[in-house]
Amino acid sequence: MATVYFVTHPEVVVDPLVPVPDWGLSAIGWKRIEAFCQRPELADVTDVFTSDERKAMDCAEALQRAWGLPFTTREDLRENDRSATGYVAPPRFWEIVDQFFGQPDTSILGWETARAAQARIKVGVAACIAARRGTGDLMIFAHGGVGTLLLSDLRGEPISRKHGQPIAGGGCYFAFDMAGRALHHGWRDIVPEGAGAGS
Question: pLDDT by residue (tens digit) across 53-112?
């Protein structure tokens, strides 16, 4: 059975003067995603979809250079909509994130609700599966917040931040069966310890 890889972008260049969707990968982020794209199991990937945010498209471009695979951008794979506040610096940002996951039906400071974002990412992933042209594995590059929401659903559990990726800067992935939606594994670092992506 084909596998779906859901991958979150790694570290980005944080610039409060630039809209968050336009942030690109940092030097460390580029090294990590390029190392991930060399993994031999990715040879079975035939279709690639990405959020239309710059940092996710950077990841798709890295995979395209490594394997020659074209990619399709989709707006419904974006991160939860936080445009009402724009950039919020930590630790306040993480306080709002706690509220976002803790009150999934409430719009926190105008943010898209967690419930709505979960429904959107589920529809987006299903659309990617339906639109694929190859017969191999499927790669989706997206974001940690919506990835957490999708993983909660795949586990059949309520929305919770406990399902969040283990690396704050991003750069994690999980995999599931395309047909039955059964998880192969939860979050893993895109560059396992000892693999050496550089710093």
Answer: 999 999 999 999 999 999 999 999 999 999 999 999 999 999 999 999 999 999 999 999
Whether the Cβ atoms of residue 79 and residue 51 lie closer than 8 Å to each other: yes
The span from the CA of 151 to the CA of 17, in Å, is 32
* The architecture CATH gives domain 19-189: 3-Layer(aba) Sandwich (3.40)
Q: Would you state the structure tokens that stand for residue 2, as one six-digit string?
A: 């084909």
Cβ partners under 8 Å of residue 12, min gap 6: 23, 24, 25, 26, 29, 55, 169, 170
Q: Return the domain boundaries, the chain.
A: 19-189
CA distance readout (Å), 5 to 12, 42, 76, 149: 21, 9, 17, 15
Q: How many C-beta neighbours within 10 Å does residue 24 have?
A: 16
Report whether 176 contacts 3 (CB < 8 A): yes
The predicted model scores a pTM of 0.95
